[in-house]
TrEMBL record:
UniProt xrefs under Gene3D superfamilies: Aldehyde oxidase/xanthine dehydrogenase, a/b hammerhead, Aldehyde oxidase/xanthine dehydrogenase, molybdopterin binding domain
Domain Aldehyde oxidase/xanthine dehydrogenase a/b hammerhead intervals: 29-143
GO molecular function: iron ion binding; oxidoreductase activity
Name assigned to this protein: Dehydrogenase
Region annotated Disordered, chain positions: 145-170
Species of origin: Methylobacterium haplocladii
Amino acid sequence: MATQISPASGRDTFVGRAMSRVDGPAKVTGLAKYAGEFAAPNLAHGYVVSSAITKGRITAIDAAAAEAVPGVFKVITHENRPSIAGEAEAYQDMVAPPGAPFRALYDETIAFSGQPVALVVAEDFDTARYAASLVRVSYEAETPHTDLEAQAGSSYDPPEKRDGIKPPPEPWGDAGSAFDGAAIKVSQQYRIAHEHHNPMEPHASTVVVEDDGTYTVYDKIQGVANSQLYLTNAFGLKPEQVRCLSPYMGGGFGCGLRPQYQLFLAMLAAQDLNRSVRVVLTRDQMWSFTYRPGAVQTVSLGADTSGNLQAIRHDALHGTSQYEDYQENIVNWSGILYGCDNVELTYRLAKLDTATPGDMRAPGAVTGVFALETAMDELAYATRIDPIQLRIANYTDTDPVEEKPFGSKALKACFRQGAERFGWSKRNPEPRSMRDGKELVGWGMACGIWEALMMESSAKVTLTADGRLEVGNSTGDIGTGTYTILTQIAADALGLPMEHVTTKLGDTDLAKAPVAGGSWTAASSGTAVMKACRDVAEQAFKLARGLEGSPLANVDFERVVFSKGRIEVAGDPAKSVVLTDVMRQTGTETLEATGSASPDKDFAKQYEAYTHSAVFAEVKIDEELGIVRVTRVVSAIAAGKILNTKTARSQILGAVVMGIGSALHEESMLDHRLGRFMNRNLGEYHVPANADIHDIDVIFVDEEDKANPLGVKGVGEIGIVGTAAAISNAVFHATGKRIRDLPITVDKIL
Ligand code: MOS
């Protein structure tokens, strides 16, 4: 059984239960420290001066007035900075797209609005901020181009593929003629706005210069190994000279995958001044790097009158910076979610004068599945087939691209259980047919899909004579519950109470792990922890078996279980020894092991691994005011084994909230004359607030998967995919108006 950690039955175990976060008390009492909260003796504070133009060059910088402010140590610019690596290559990081990464304060060139042009370093933050306002920068400006559709003419195929991103598959069948010959056709353009991640905690880095000349770096990052790699390359340091930590994050959503420029600037200043430096970005400055790129897509679906898909074409265009070819998987989902003999998927980029876009929760899938699943709803109306029936008619248990079966795909159970919970059978499909008082009511649904990935990860566990276990893994807990699930896995594997297990994360001194992203952390680091614990369990068992008169003397390891602090023969608890007695009697201070996990190649040869969902949404719309409220969402998720039903549910709740934001609110608006995002604060860039959120119901359907020994597929991203389509489809059902352009704001309803 893939999902069993220990064969004991009837004992208290933690995996699979609803457990509160082990780091919850630290977070709510303020004990948990974030990157911008760590202090050091003589800590200096850096404040970033941001470019006032979008494109061009700096002609002069006058920092005299700023440097004259008492308490200012230095104003660092490209003219007076210490020497740094010259090759763009040296600024690569673990998840960088192809291209030449941005180098802060490198030279006079300005490539995007808000680019850092100086760092004012002072004895406190307010002094640095005030002095920054006195720095006079002169520019020679050029006209920026930031309008995606205006640049569509010079769009291009990514010249080099991005690591981990599959390019669109070769077309199969003949989608063009199949579409032309189809009895029922839908072909439309869909748009999604630029979005910024907007974690509650803005980016921050604290670089502490230690007495021995090494650096301890606290960075807001989803994987400390990435900060360390970036700093060692850019500053020519050795890994042992730079320890990076990120024990807690106030939200990442992908903007913490790559090291950002405040980390670079903090290290630059620390080296220049030979003192510890902290750089915290402002909310406004959070609009000067990574974002989800707005996209223009065309989806064409051809079907017969029974709704069987005969052609799928999906084309997407989005922007990237002038210096990197950021890529995400927008169109590939349209070849995987349904079975169809004629499919053509195309994908192009256009150069814009913005910072490089980046991964934002379910990158690509949020964009592409919105278009596909809205088009499917349009096809449901065109064929007069119920949206769920239409999807079942085109269901596939095999990945049509790889021609391999899915290891598991409980999407039909999602349809059934989701529809039942939502009350879908009571839906009158006629648009504008349902009302609640003066509000129009709409019910819509859509599917979601995301990859179930696994990466190489390792974990070290140490059991001490007092029966306590320490678990270490360098990945970050980005708010997902990683501390908790790893603690559950370890406690179960060694039969210990949760309180006796301490999990440490987010530190390059811990066992190597990937960045926390892609919904792969539970599968990757969870498996590594489980393997390390099994190793320690086996060591403890061998000691126990060797004890004089041991009740385990003639027993194999496979026949014992670790439960309630004892090692016992499965089904015969009378034959047992106490774990701490074993340690004491054998004079063992510690037992330790490092476990490594990597993707199962044999599994991957035979199967494809994806998570799926069916999302149901109810909207109520006041037509006079054009206000849409999402009054109910039911999200039914098939994601393999759920390790912790409480933290997993929270992942889906948060993702649905973010999906509501994407559907109705979130839009970073560019003024193309200035090439600048204009609504750079949470007042003008609205993320859903409590008043926007009503009932959200999460269902985890049973799904057994064998991609990894835990049977987990990951839940960090699947909850946002398809949510915006379910809402746009509900808006159509309510109003009869099809809005293909996110976010669905008041002006589009009226
Ligand atoms: Mo996620 S966009 O991989 O943090």
